[in-house]
Amino acid sequence: MAGLVANTELLRKLLVGFVRDEVLKVGITEVVLGLSGGIDSALVAFIAAEALGPDHVHAICMPYKTSNPESEAHARLVAEACGINFSVVPITAMVDAYFNLFPQADNMRRGNKMARERMTILFDHSALLRALVLGTSNKTELLLGYGTLYGDMASALNPIGDLYKSHVWQLSAAMGVPSAVIEKKPSADLWAGQTDEEELGFTYREVDELLYRMVDLRLTREELVAAGFDGEFIDSIYQKIRNSHFKRRLPVIAKVSNRTIDRDFRYARDWGK
Amino acid sequence: MDFTAVLAQIQPKLGCLADNLALVEKEILAASASGGDLIIFPELALTGYFLKDLVPEVALRLDSPEILRLVELSRSISIAIGFVEETTDYHFYNSALYLEDGAIRHLHRKVYLPTYGLFDEQRYLAHGTTFRAFDSKFGRFGMVICEDMWHLSASYILAMDGATTLLCLSSSPARGIDGETLGSAAAWQKLVSTTALFLNCRVLYCNRVGFEDGVNFWGGSEYIAPSGESVSRCKLLEPEALSVRIDEGALRRERIFSPMIRDENLFVTMQELARITRERGQ
Description:
The structure holds two protein chains of two kinds.
Chain A: H1 8-24, E1 30-34, H2 39-52, E2 57-61, H3 69-82, E3 85-88, H4 92-99, H5 107-129, E4 131-133, H6 139-144, H7 165-175, H8 179-183, H9 196-200, H10 204-216, H11 221-226, H12 231-243
Parallel strand pairs in A: 1-2, 1-4, 2-3
Helix pairs in contact in A: 1-2, 1-7, 2-3, 2-7
Chain B: E1 3-9, H1 17-33, E2 38-40, H2 55-58, H3 65-73, E3 78-86, E4 92-100, E5 103-109, H4 121-124, E6 134-136, E7 139-145, H5 152-160, E8 165-170, H6 183-199, E9 202-207, E10 209-212, E11 215-218, E12 222-224, E13 230-233, E14 240-246, H7 248-257, H8 260-263, H9 266-280
């Protein structure tokens, strides 16, 4: 499918240009990002290093005690490969201190807490380093809602939010992300052996084929079925998109005045830039 | 006559009139000093594109000091430039001015305001109602703004009105990453080339660069000969001032080889359009 095969040279130019332009024009030279050892944050690190120079990119690896040690090793490998600043801030003490109060908490609560703990560390370093926080969520997970609101979904700028996972793989290969990172199974790494695709119940390649046709090409359900997609799969993905839409919007504001923020008070974020 | 046109592929700052005016002045003085006869700026060069509620804040009346300054600068070089126009009855237009020899020669108000996909122009702007060719020192010109050109009738009317050069001022966003070149660039290149070819007109296309809220404007400004051939094209994604020499002989020769515009039957067109209008009951 043509749409899922990217012209990586062009895409690289656009995304590098995006980071350079959107960072420098607000009078800032530094960016900070969480480096998990996975492919999405690795790609963002490579893009940022090319855009701003590796000295201006600050990567933080934030493992929890159950994180796979391979993740930190891969994060380090990525940082070395693109020459960016690298540090490790473990989150075990903070997360455990909290859950000592709520020992019954399930995996979802724990995972969300970890994602939000990492967010507070990134935004603290944003203030410390005068750096913008780069987001690392791709279009596939943003559409599926497979991320934590105000956690890994929080950032100032996201260079890869309009790239499906299939694009992320292609561009990562083109930009020289280490192959160990590209080839391993995507994982949120909340517990040992967890993989995204097992948890989601489908592969990224399968869902990208559907999402591309459903969202980008706006094919109808009938057209998708005719193209060979299973009806139940289509419906479940449609519901995932609908049910997670709140994560992609600002909080809803009760309108009482003539000019309500984002409804009839409308300005671009780059206002004056 | 032969003349030198400069395509000023600039990167305006969103909502910053003073900064953009300074940038525009700098480009005008440089183009003039290097022997340019005409400089063309993008759509909304003085303001940036995704203005939303900033429209009334950055709008200029034709007698504003900013416009008068540009009119003054046109004594040394002709200028085509896009801005937000405010009228005395407080309508706001996406407009383009053609300034020459210290006077306003032409004002075009964008007729087709895109309001779909990532565009929202009709929410904030009033639409123009005319396409008129006008005489410049360099022959008869027609001016369109971006989306106008996607309407065949716009360029057709200007060519029927005698324009042999079409100026298109643009702020075209980049999208489409699956082809050999950028999707929107490929579409525009096809459009300007075909328009030139159909109408035996040259086209001077000026697009901006830079990002606004993550949206890139791709540049790629170009000069298309009346044969449809792209003679010179700016780089994609980067600011540039491209100087192009316009050859009057090429226009004359093309119109001798391919006299489609001479043979165009305006009477048939008008008769059929009148019938269609009648039948539609409009």
